[in-house]
Amino acid sequence: MQRIGVFICWCGSNIAATVDVKKVAAAALNEPGVVFSADYQYMCSASGQGLVKDAIREKGLTGVVVCSCSPRMHEATFRKAAESCGLNPYMVEIANIREHCSWIHKDVAEGTEKAVILMRAAVAKVNLNQSLVAGKSDVVKRALVIGGGIAGIQTALDIAEAGYEVDIVEKKPTIGGKMAQLDKTFPTLDCSACILTPKMVDAAAHDKIKIYSYSEVESVSGFVGNFTAKIRKKARFVKEDLCTGCGLCTEKCPSRKTPNEFNEGMNTRSAIYIPFAQAVPKYAVIDPAACLHFKTGKCGLCERTCDAKAVDYNQKDETIERKYGAIVVATGYNVIKLDNFGEYGYTENPDVITSLELERIMNAAGPTGGALLRPSDKTHPQKIVFVQCVGSRGQRPCDKPYCSKICCMYTAKHAMLIREKYPDTEVYVFYIDVRTPGKNFEEFYRRAVEQYGVHYVKGQVGKVAENAGKLRVYGSDLLMNEQIVIDADLVVLAAAIEPDESAKKIATMLTTGIDTNNFLTEAHPKLRPVESATAGIFLSGVCQGPKDIPETVSQASAAAVKVIGLLAKDQITCNPCVARSDELLCNGCSSCEKVCPYGAITYIDKEVNDHGKREVRRIASVNEAVCQGCGACTVACPSGAMDLKGFTNKQIMAEVDAICR
Amino acid sequence: MQKVAEIAQKRAIQLLNQGVVNRVIGWKKGEFGYDETPAVFTTAAGIEDFRYDVFSAPNLSKYLIDESKKEGKILAFLKPCDTYSFNQLIKEHRVNRDNVYIIGIECGGMADINTIRNRGAAGVTDVADNGQTVIAHTLYGDVTFDKNEVLLEKCQACKGKKHVIFDELIVVNPQDDEPKNRFAGVEAIENMTPEERFAFWREQLSKCIRCNACRNVCPACSCLQCVFDNPRSGVASKASPDTFEEQLYHIIRAFHVAGRCTDCGECSRVCPQDIPLHLLNRKFIKDMNAFYGEYKAGEDSETRPPLVNFSKDDAEPSVISDKGGDK
Is A184 among the domain residues? Predict the structure, then answer.
């Protein structure tokens, strides 16, 4: 029989206001095994923990139940307290009477009744608890960063600077991401490429960083400290070790009709191409869908042109397997597709463009060489209308419910830059609210309005229609309470941003959470913003939520620090709550092996002694270092042979029985 | 049918004499003329007792779990639907394929003695099958039935006449392989109101005498120790002390075989209380088909069953409700 102590925390008034803690303490004494109970204002405080420790020593407790906040908050605290006075930490259970009870009830009688039930369930579990001993596992001192935008680059540089190896896997032929496409950056208006490309070069030159460009992570197995990733290096059809990046092949290539991704499809590129002048790594790549050699078997001009003999039409995709201690997801974002926003006529009218397309038009390396010309007739637009919140903060199925966060600022930037360069241009901005929370952001916006005379109109645009070579914009001005019609030459849509489509696949691969908008979920929205809920997986940049560059860089560095903290350890403590197979009950059917997301279960042929009957049976065997204790196998097992230490079927049933009593 | 039985018998003797196998599993005459019973024959002479007729319904696959682990190869006669069970057992590593020589045997559908009786044939002594009709020899003379009218439920809902695994086939009269609609009965229950449905199942399951026949015959229920026999599982009990438990017995069983049940229909066939247990299993099959795409357990011995498979485009809960599942 256990000797159990029950400790009820008031959590100030968080619990005590809705739960009669004295009543719970008194009720505890009626439960089987309970020899002591106490309540205290802050059980997590040093004196509260002292109460628990004293009781363990003086009453000879073999089990502890703390009725308090979520185990995610203080389970570790009380386990450590128990361990410090010789009690196995896994003999401590938390009954969550805050999040699961006091916070969601208003009535004290109801709250108290539920708190008693939750306490009872935890006592029933502790009665069946057994001491567990955690093992250790080694940490592979290398990190994987998925995504080579500014977030991934910054994370990788910081980790590498701390002396650990980092691999960046980027699916595009070059690193740089969205920031490489931007012209100027707010609120300082410095050139994006000028501040980004040195970092790209640093990453490429760093002896601790290895860049796998034009590559994708195909699968990840393992666990914190010991992941194995399979990286598919897509065939470039150009040998990286020979290509000098001279670009002669791209000039000779006769297939020149492919929309240029880097310029958002506003001009074309050749079939063999280098994405942009400062690409890193600067190797050419052949797009087989456009290449005449791949389509007709003829041509071969690039191969003949290349003095370095780098072109290799027979190159195949290559799969590389690498081990990592930590993984950082930095998959970034894309601008949403605007096909479903018929009111703006984006798909019909070439002069309705997205802000990212405007970035390319304004950029010296862009399709117009930096001149502000509208796409349809290459004339200079006299009147430009910016529309904010296109697809952001909306309620329709095609809308995103969230604020994309960066649009207010970049629109102010665009408006300002245009007025600066072309003072004869009239600029209108339709907005719902202007959101400028950031250092020097509000001042920046005020400059656009006051110094540059940008017309800000509070209201939304209902329709954009072509009218005699102009774009007739029907909007409403909510402050003046009137409908306005503007005949514009160019309409720029601040389209919402959404996580890259790879985020969902990667989250699934890494068994980490995503929200309804496909942003990866952090472990705690305030206190653990760069960690995912899965140990060893960290988040960097917009994959976690909309962010501007300064925020992305801060978060990227924060993620790097978390990785460094992990890689600095030689060994990490494993979770002892792992699956265990009862070899006499195991049928060897492989159900558990099939559902195990970690590949922790294998089958062995083993001689068993089943009540005197000796025979060789195929039975499941759990690799305790790999098992993460998710319990999927225990429910898949038809005979009940699989059980989870610390959460045995019996313990869970005892809890359910106690609740139903 | 008579001819098929003779060919099977001859072939069994041949394989025994050639030493290809050292025993044969088939059916022999039971206590009555209509309850052919699984039997293992070890000598050519013994095979005299071999029977294969409209009452050779028992699925022999489950016996092969033990038989295939013994010394030497065994010859097994498997009807089309029995081959699905055998494949599923291979998938679950429960049988040793190398130790079984499978003869896929033609099946024209199995008869239900209860239907024959209910249709007025009392005192049945023996039954003859000549393809289209079934003649019941009774103490009071012969009664002839159209075979389709006296088929077992599982044969009325036949999955098809194709053997999915075999070493050789004995098919004299190739038959139409058109699978029949198996889900009409499930749909009828789905169309009930929740109250009607609850009342229906409460009435059916309250008939249960907990004889465990359904479990014992089920090829998917092949655990070394069943949870209902394991005192440590928390659900073990020999009898059903209350209706709640007897209802849960069948529901737990349906969950345990979900995704593994080949719909061989043996559970309903052997139930002495005529509980339509196959409907529970078929509901799972129907739902899995809707949520995860068409899947027939036992159609092959390699693919991963949907419930123990995980793919990146698995149905999300929202998709399940879109496809008609409960929210």
Answer: yes
